[in-house]
Amino acid sequence: MRWLIVFTFAFIVFNGLREVLAKLGLGRVPGDFSFRFAGREWFFPFGSSVLISLLTMVVARWL
User: Fold this and answer.
1) Is the Transmembrane helix keyword given for this protein (predicted)?
2) DSSP for 31-42?
């Protein structure tokens, strides 16, 4: 259940900050999907979520 909450939070954050994160290169990672439905663009950042999780884990272990 906890992973569902984390994924939902990441989905909301990625969609809200999509333009800023695109400048950093996130959102174009293999595994990120975007499509247009009902006049709105939907973005599912599976690959970017995994990348950020791995980076966070490495930083947490380092500290």
Assistant:
1) yes
2) TEEEEEETTEEE
The CA–CA distances, whole Å, from 10 to 38, 39, 57, 63 equal 22, 23, 16, 23
List, for residues 3-54, the tens digit of each pLDDT value.
788 778 877 777 777 778 778 777 778 888 888 888 888 878 788 878 888 8
- The amino acid occupying position 22 is A
Q: Give the three-class secondary structure for 26.
A: coil
Tokens 């272990």 map to which residue? 61
Tokens matching residue 43: 């973005």
